[in-house]
Amino acid sequence: MEVKEVVRKTEKKNCGQKTVSTLLTKITKLQREALVLENTFEAQVQKVHPDLQESAKNLLHYLALRKQDNRDLQVDLSVLGLSSLGRAESHVMGSLTAIQNQLQVLEANYTGAPQPQVAFKPWNSILKRNLAALLGPGSEGREGRIMVTFSTEFATDYELVKSLLLAGMNCARINCAHDDKKVWKKMVENIKTAEQEVGRPCKILFDLMGPKLRTGSVSPGPEVLGIHPTFNELGEILSPAKVWLAPKGVGTQQLVTASLKISEEFVSQLQPGDEIRFQDARRRKRKFTVAEAQGGGALLHLQKSSFLRTGTEVCHFRDGQELQQERIGKVPSVSMPLLLQPGQTLVLHRDPKPGAPAKYDKDGNVLEPAHISCTLPEIFARVKAGEPILFDDGEIEGVIAEVQPEYLQIKITAAEDTGSKLKPDKGINLPESDLRLFTLTEKDNADLKFVVKHADIVNLSFVSHPEMVEELQRALASYKASHVGIMLKIETKAAFNNLPHLLLTLMRNHPAGIMIARGDLAVELGWKRLAEVQEEILWITEAAHLPVVWATQVLETLTKKGRPSRAEVTDAAMAQRADCVMLNKGRYILKSMDMLDDIMKRMQQHQYKKTPLLRMLHVSDLEASLGK
Asked: Distance between alpha carbon 196 and the CA centroid of its chain, in Å?
């Protein structure tokens, strides 16, 4: 062999040995830093539930790994054909140890030293165990769980609840921000009855409202009810409006557009095919047609848009002959939203008096700005002039211009040019303000007395600090309900910033999990950051071996209108990387359940978390195509 060839091979060998040694040093450093962070938080780890202590350590190891930019290291490892740590979330120390052993084997090949034994504790699927403990078993053919948000009609429509369970619902979410304990109890009873009839389990999650900032009431408008048929894009009627007419207290399980109250005597004389004629609030002649008359009420069809006031006179006709007259009962007042445009002023006040739109003089000058109250006025002492404020999921944006003990003066900076409507009970976000809302509200504590008797899981909304988690844990212990699972709803900037501390505190409880509430989170952090932020939450919760729920507007258009958008289908497929997907209420909820179940079953063959699964592709059969 020539001297040049010997030198070249020696240099190549020395270069390879140097690369391996450098990588070994980096891997060893990462291991050391992971153990240092574990030791730093040893006291917190000791407070974690025994079943989750190893998971808490893994979470700390992962946070240590992600404290620095490891992209160059990943490239160098890939060049050698080794793991690039791209799937180390669930087993950080095991992954580092495996790479370390492989590098030592390579180093031994260069130096002739004895090859080390590969020795590290194998990782198993702790996450799957924790998922089953929190959300129960998966459905047939589908590992990911589906959660459905219940609305008021679920309290009376047992068949819908049963149908959802048959379609694959694994968890029912009852939102304490809506309805009351009587309605919640009926929902629970329907779930329990359906479980027995169908023979499938369904976890029950109660969503505590938490310290949610919302707008207060507004001055009521006139008592008038608008009722409209369903139209297509050309204004043609697709289906009539369905109206339930009955005495007070007599309801229906049918899906109707509106309900009207009238006497039992009037309803008792109605027959299918009869007409009920009236003049609406605009003095336009209109009529209902009786479609059904049973169950103490009547189902009416309406072919033209109508506006009915309290006390509207209605006349009952059969075969052109008038049989009776009466006035309908009270209809709800129209809510008068505040119309806000860029550049205008809004006053957010402590006084719970009803809000009202701005008042103008005859020349269009503002005499009095629009005003509305706030559900948590204690935040007035914690905000500063110049900080941003957002309303209604970011539909209206403003900046705080003036802070006073009794009110905030806000300049509207973004809204529709023609004005955006601000209604009661709409969310308020203050993403740059340190609100220090660390405790359960009076409503939360009152609701808990009922919730602990019926819930499998308590979901804590607008959590931002570990103190709030500790308070909930103490409350559950006081009710002897420590077995109830806890889920944290991550929906604020503060919650995201404090996520590692929230998780370590949460993990004192078992079972436990996380919900990514993407709506409020996007408002707080900005829509541009949402994709990045939800990725980080998925990584960190997987490192903690905790199940995560993918929530907010999944297949929303399908659920509300009956047809999905392409973007929604893609979003639902991406949700496979979570452990549970939440659907919101809507008219076509069963269609959404069916589609989501199908998407999740298909995607679990292609993806586990963020790892692609290399199943056979069905895109084409190359050999078969050559034979044609």
From this structure: 28
